[in-house]
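Friendly challenge for the regulars: who can give me the structure tokens for this chain first? No prize, just bragging rights.
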Amino acid sequence: MKKIIKNAALTLIISAIITSMVSCGGNSTDSKDNSSSKNDNSVVIDSSSVSEDVSVNPITAEEFKTKILEKVAFDGEMIDCTKLADYPLDTHGIPSDAYSSYVYLEVSDTTNSYETVIVFSATNPTLVKEKLDGYISSLKAQFENYNATIIDMVNKSVVKADGNKVYLIISPNVSEIEKVVVDNLKAFN
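First reply, four minutes later:
Bragging rights claimed.
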């Protein structure tokens, strides 16, 4: 009987030691991985401590427009074409079912400037980009031998699609405006 109790106790002790070693072994491996990561200048992040809250606060067309106008100085008075019903449909042939919302700003004096910023949250980004590319081509043909200032602006224009967002920028300040647009693009509904 004493032999059975000793064997059972010994088995429990060995099981406890093995369990302890396996548990500690995992941690010592992690420690080795972490220390070797430090040596190769990598950053190891414990995924259990990372917050899942990487969400972006959505912004409306009105808020997007305000962010653009706060950061960018335009060479004339801007018209808020966003408030005109189906304005892109009338001007660019973009069907209203190809987008869910948009921002459309345009300089009022189109005889001296064609500064324009359009941002779409599109349901059909391929079609919207195609129509905006067509618009740029038509402006190039229209102003090629007519107005050097406008044709220079149009030649430097940007039409890009990023996921379901599509934007057009015609301006002498394309890079400045594009930075504001890109910074707010993911949040735009």
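Confidence is low (pLDDT under 50) at residues 26-53. The longest strand covers residues 99-107. Your move, everyone else.
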